[in-house]
Each structure stands twice: as C-alpha cells, then as structure tokens.
Amino acid sequence: MNVGSTGWNTAEIDHLVDTLETDCLLILQGGRTVYSYGDVTHRYLCHSMRKSFLAALMGQDVEAGIIRLDATLEELGIDDNEGLSAVERKALVHDLLTARSGIYHPAGYETEWMKSIKEKRHSHGPGTFWCYNNWDFNALGTIFVRATGQSVAEAFAARIARPLGFQDFDAARDAWTESFVESRHDAYPFRLSSRDLARFGQMFLQGGMWEGRRILPDGWAEENVMPYSHAGTRGAYGYMWWLERDGVFAPGCVTPRGSYAAVGAGGHYCLVVPERDMVIVHRVNTDIKGRTISKHGFGRLLRAIFATSAQPAQQGIIPAQ
Which letter, b or e, does each residue of 209-219 get, where b requires 16 or more Cβ atoms within 10 Å of its Cβ? Predict the structure, then answer.
C-alpha cells in the first residue's frame, strides 16, 4: 500500500485488497493520488470498459453532425449475418447507445452472463426494453468506423490518450479489433494501465475538461451518464456507462448519489464519485484464468473506501506515478 498524507485510516482497505483477488487499486481525490496498491503501470485487459471509451469518443462526431443519434440502422445500411428484420432496422443509434435496440442477433465477445440475460430474438421493439447486449455495442463500433473513417484505436489515441497525457498506452499494441463467425460486427478491445485509466475517469469528473482544455464537447460527459434505464440490482444505465440508482450499484454498499462507472468483466472498474471528488480504479489480472472479484467483494471494498475517505481535497492534477 502506498498512500499520501490524507488522514485516512486504511487498515480495512489494506485487509480487503490482500484477501480479495485485487491486483491494483488506485484512488484519486481532488485530482491527486490518495491510495495506491499494486502496479499502476501494468496494462490490464479492459473488457467491457471499452464501451464507455467509445461513448466518450462519439461526442465529437455527434456534435459535428457526422453521427446522428436519431439515424436508423436502415439509413446507415447496418445488417448482420442472419439478416435484420424491418422492425429491427428501425432501431436508432441512440437505442444502441442505451442498450435498447431490441436486436438480439448473435454477437461476439459475450461473457456467459451476457448470454444468460439475452432476450429472445424479436421479443421487443426498438427503444422499448433495456438489455445489456453486445450486439448493440459492437454495431456501434461499426457505425463509428464507417462514419469517421478512423478505427476506434486511432480515434482514442488522438482524442483521449494524447490530450490526457497517457503514460503507458500504445495504440498499435494496446487496442485492436476481433472478428467473429456469428456476427459481422467486430469488438474493439483495449489494454490500459490503471494510472492512464484514472486520467480518463478524472476527465469525466471534470466534465470533459483537462488542464483547462475541453476534451469532450460541452455537455457530452453529463449526457453519457444520464439514467436512461433501470438496471435492477446493478443500478442504472446511460450511454454504455453503469450508474448508481438511489445508492444501488454494488451489493452491500450505499454508493454516493451521482456516481457512475466504466465496468469490465472480472472486476475492472473506473468509478467516478462526484460527491466525494473521487475516482476509484480497480483491476484484476484476468489474463490468469479464473481470476476475478465478485460484485459482492467489490461492494465490501467500496463500503470500506467510503467509510474511510476524508472530505474532498482541493482540486489538483494527477501527478506522474
């Protein structure tokens, strides 16, 4: 454990990170590192946090009119191997962003949990039902690439990584696409270090600003994390971001109002807590088969963090680690 002069009593946090399968925990408050455990430079697989990255990227193109949130899949020429029905082709880009497309076509890069909750094909119309669905997220990647002429990796490097001063990210090495036989829409995985991921979260906490420069269009960070859908025991859902709902986010913990997170399978979180002026990054080395932290384990850790944390510090910048 490495912590600055914060006034925190971290004994319970220290105990939990030693007993859970936590490989890295990094906490920022007031823009400064207040707790660090593990190797913050290790580039872990991000899993579904990739979706929040894409949501951030799309703001520039929405503002410029290059991507229209009210464009239908029919207008955009989006289809798939089994063919989309006339009703499915009426789904809007906005429906995909909010996981409300009603399209339950086979998709790639799905976890067992995603497969278990997938609705029956043609069971819901576009915009009428929320279901966390990789078809939506992967198809958005296709829409982005066609509209911008850039890969997700190229755009992320230019629009996010470079302006935020990422220290460990190399787009040629750490972002790629994976294709699948069941669907023509690729996934766009990432690897990021925890200290670079923390900068992404801090930029959202600052409303899309970084060192006085606007990185995201005005209002886009806030629009990303509006509670468009009720997500049951997991809180709420925005534009490919998970949100707390009346304190509901992780079991066993009352999460401060207004918190939101990019979440990846196995225990990857970039949790932004505006009420505490805080960013919490949690990583698990999921390259090791079977290594994971449950949502209950993460809830216990969050409870300890929120019980321990001091009042928000003065706003600062994230120092190099």
Answer: bbeeeebbbee
